[in-house]
Batch of 3 targets.
Target 1
Amino acid sequence: MEPDAQGTRIKLAGHEPPRFVADVMLGRLTRWLRALGYDTLYDITWDDDRLAQIARAEKRILLTRDVQLTRRRGIAYILIQDDKVLNQLRQVILTLNLNDARAFTRCIECNTELEEVSSEDAALLVPPYVLSTQTRFRRCPNCGRVYWRGTHWTRMREVLAELETEDGRE
Ligand SMILES: [Zn+2]
């Protein structure tokens, strides 16, 4: 299958929701996709062969800035066009019709699915002012990081709203 005009070849992947593996240039985009709840692998030690192998074996969509990588056989990919992370995010969201239904279900640091934490347990893990303003907490069972819908959540909603508004103008 030849790449289309947008530099994508995604029909091969076929996972719903889509899963990703990102190249070394796309660490910030990786964190955004994880914040949205999308399974995204990223490791700065992985070379091109490894990235291609993972994309192929696990039927993940390869996110890359490197046109050479997209020429590998049997890989679904999106060739990321822009250096700015919000433009990169916008490209992926528009290409695959992503949404925020799964936001904050996955650890931004290590990609592990989060577990619910009761307020009682959260009391041991977060500062008092957070406990007094938030009711839902989640924790990464792998790295222990605790998440709640605080400033990062608000910021993410603002950014997503901006992206949607931009779409409307086109
Ligand atoms: Zn984690």
Note: The mean pLDDT is 89.
Target 2
Amino acid sequence: MTYIAKPALHHPTLTKNKVGYTRRDYEGRISTLCAGCGHDSISAAIIQACWELDIAPHRVAKMSGIGCSSKTPDYFLSASHGLNSVHGRMPSCLTGASLANRELLYLGVSGDGDSASIGLGQFAHAMRRGVPMVYIVENNGVYGLTKGQFSPTADKGSQSKKGAMNIDSAVDLVSLALQLGASYVARGFSGDKAQLVPLIKGAMRHGGAAFIDVISPCVAFNNHAGSTRSYDHVREHNQALNRIDFIDLAPEAKAEPGAGELLSLPQADGSLLHLRKLHAAHDPTSRLAAMTTIQTLQQQGELPTGLLYVDAQARNLHQQLKMVPGALNALDEAALCPGGAQLERINAALR
Ligand SMILES: Cc1ncc(C[n+]2csc(CCOP(=O)(O)OP(=O)(O)O)c2C)c(N)n1
Ligand code: SF4
Ligand SMILES: [Mg+2]
């Protein structure tokens, strides 16, 4: 992977967060993506979310597949654990790592080609099993790395840079994630950091399968008239359903109600999501309502964004499998070898 290292020097007066790190500690190498690529804005949003949530970088495991989007974990959280896997295989690698050590925060970064083409089966099973992770797809409607072929998320009828028409139906990842059982489903836009950072923070505190589809224009191959993933098209058709004011459970935390209805949704870790409704008909606590709103707006050519659905009570993979608390490599001999009597009981149950 090509990269340019950043100078390691930090100014001593840089502000530190509650766990003693500066914002620079959450950065990575200098990006080699095209200037203006939406993916770089998403990396910046991830850096901001982790710094503001006081997550120690070494408590994060960032994993990806192959693509311009999958290169981005190199450009943030350089002190975190990381794996750049095979094309489309991030979810299974992440699932295995999570089962071995549930104490880390797992961040999966993928592309629309990586997750909706070769990795569609992997995406589906991570969602339906409730793998506790933040799954971000940097969705530009093309295979950016291999020079702009339509990806499966490209809208039917959208045009390529050279004028070809996409004749295939689009895979809508948020609708799929909802149907498959993801318990936190959101859509953001790389050009709206004010909306995106709280969506990522909410996902990081969720504790279950949290999926965020981030529309992220490819300036090299999909930012022209006739594309439905260009900056201009997305700005014109972006329908924000709500705004999150994410608030940790801290004594000084206060919600700031403004225009619209304010919903307070408790998360698994005891924190609260404060959600301001911008679309009267949308109820983010109902899976069916979320599907209906998304389909209705998308049929009108609009792009619903915001927190589309959340189920804070959902059980994740570790709870379903009754996994022991903590990392498996921390289990002592007594836990790993419970003795002959226990073995006899297990064998008897199998006879
Ligand atoms: C097994 C395999 N098949 C195909 C490729 C070629 N390939 C590399 S990246 C890519 C698609 C990337 O598209 P996407 O995931 O949307 O990422 P983007 O570059 O658009 O961010 C493909 C098909 C590969 N590297 N490995
Ligand atoms: S080719 Fe597209 S997706 Fe890849 S870095 Fe350039 S703008 Fe971004
Ligand atoms: Mg892509």
Note: The first strand starts at residue 60 and ends at 64.
Target 3
Amino acid sequence: MSNPVIEDVTRHATSSLVAVAGHPIHAMLVTFPIALVVSTLGCDLFYWWTADPFWGRAGLYASGFAFWLGILASLAGTAELLLVKGIRKRVASWIHAIAAITLMSIVGANWGLRLHDPDVVLPLGLMVSLLGLVFVGLAGWHGGKLVFDHGIGLMVSSDD
Ligand code: HEM
């Protein structure tokens, strides 16, 4: 019996091309910026609480790694978006990309601010970290929708 959900997924190819044995590299990489954006906010809150410069330095490293690993993940995501027709054709993919690029701008600004002025953490750095948390939620949620609602990146078996 035909399954309408599987039929919609298979109408245009949505399987990942930037993948290891069919598993999308983008999905493997995004865990790093997500965790590091949250960690940056954690460092700022500990810095506020303790005034220990250690947390200022930790926030500088967390935001820097969040930015560069986010860029790496975004390159893999952008390659999928441009190369795979079934991904390119879905509005949801572009909504996710816009949220992700906005996120990367915020994360880059957060790192750049700290690089030039370590005292920027309170209050500006903390506020940028909070904005980063909002956008990591938005970008991550929309990325999840691509997989769970639109079946993007799945290896669909003809037996299913
Ligand atoms: C321009 C940048 C980006 C583009 C074009 C993009 C594109 C995509 C695509 C096509 C997918 C479907 C899975 C796949 O085929 O790999 C996806 C999934 C996802 N993306 Fe992105 N992405 C970008 C950046 C980001 C960033 C920075 C994050 C971090 C918050 C992120 C979080 C996610 C998540 C959480 C998923 C679901 C993965 C899963 O559930 O396994 N994306 N993205």
Note: The pocket of protoporphyrin IX containing FE is lined by residues 16, 24, 26-27, 30, 33-34, 70, 73-74, 77-78, 80-81, 87, 93, 96-97, 100-101, 103-104, 136, 139-140, 143-144, 146-147, 152-153 (CB under 6 Å).
